[in-house]
Please model this.
Amino acid sequence: MALVPQCHPDRPHQARGLCKSCYLTVLRRENPALAKQCAEYNKRYRMTHLDYYWNWHLEYHHGITSEQYSRVLERQDGRCAICKRLPSPDRRLNVDHDHKTGTIRGLLCDKCNLLVGRIENNAELMPVLMAYLTLKRQP
Model:
């Protein structure tokens, strides 16, 4: 009995000795209509699924709707509340909130959100950080 070569030995295999991903790739290459149908379905599913998750995340973690998020985003002209930069096209701004009260302060980019999170819990570090950043260094 001849062994069928496998594309990825660590994955479960379907037909033709291929894993599901490679098998579907071969099918799409052989059948352009199937490829187009799969691409359209994947795009529709991904958008629906991501929007659903985003709405759930806003409601569950921050207690706001996507409409409320959009209003805050509009007030900030689509920019980070601190650095005023536009987010990259594939990213959304983070909802910045007070962890003690849950009050939403604004929408921040990843870098500013991380900075605020670090400083918020260690406010005594702010003067030390400012002194460090303004320190004149010898070349």
